[in-house]
Amino acid sequence: MEGGKNRPRPALIAGVAFLIAAFGLFFFEPLLAAAWLLAYVVLCVAACFFPQTNFLGPVISRGRTGTNQVALTFDDGPSPSTTPAILDALDRHCAPATFFVSGLNAEKYPELIADILRRGHAVGNHTYRHDPLVMLKGYRTLYREVNDAIVALRRLGVDARAFRPPVGIVNPGLFPILDELGLFCVTFNRRARDAGNLRVLQLAEKILGRVKGDDIILLHDVKPRRPGDETAFAREIEKILAGIRRRGLDIVPLAELIGRETMSGVRSS
Question: Which of 11, 28, 133, 267 is most buried by a 10 A CB count?
Fold first, then answer.
């Protein structure tokens, strides 16, 4: 992925090809030319929901080590309802993780960010407010969301380099912003479809049923939405951590799995 900003985006190359083809078709069948251009638009929209295609820009969605290693990532926090319990479980299993946090939550709970770092984990940028519709908004809004999170984290001594878009959706305007701000995009390829801890039962079963080497696992670091699910959530995290090891897989830092530093360093705040 290094140097990706210097290579033309596949979407740009395809756009030029589609435009040339449509121009040629116009003289024979204008409606067919219009349909050809519409097909390109549909392709770009679809690529927003499948960032792993790298069509709109470079996205890391899994490791490439070829080994029995996986990385754990937790999105949307930190949260006093879940972060301490997650950190304790990670300690018990000697498992590293990366927490993709919102800038707003980081500012609300700086002590949790400090604890994440103190225990040897990494922190990534997950926008400032975690608006699930942010990729449908304009360039200035998206830039502000990414940059405000950078500012918030730097105030806490964190210089995050890895960015994860809310709900894993991208758009064409994201990648120039990441290039300008010195970030790169990381998504995931293994998740439990828990809808942000709305459904925490059987999290372990859903993850462990298909987990394999080089997986980037997505979990959530927010309070379960249904009353009484906090205990069940903690139990599922324990099952996941133990189950990964029983399957002969090692949990390694995300930076190690993808071969790229996710933070450029932690400074004293």
Answer: 11
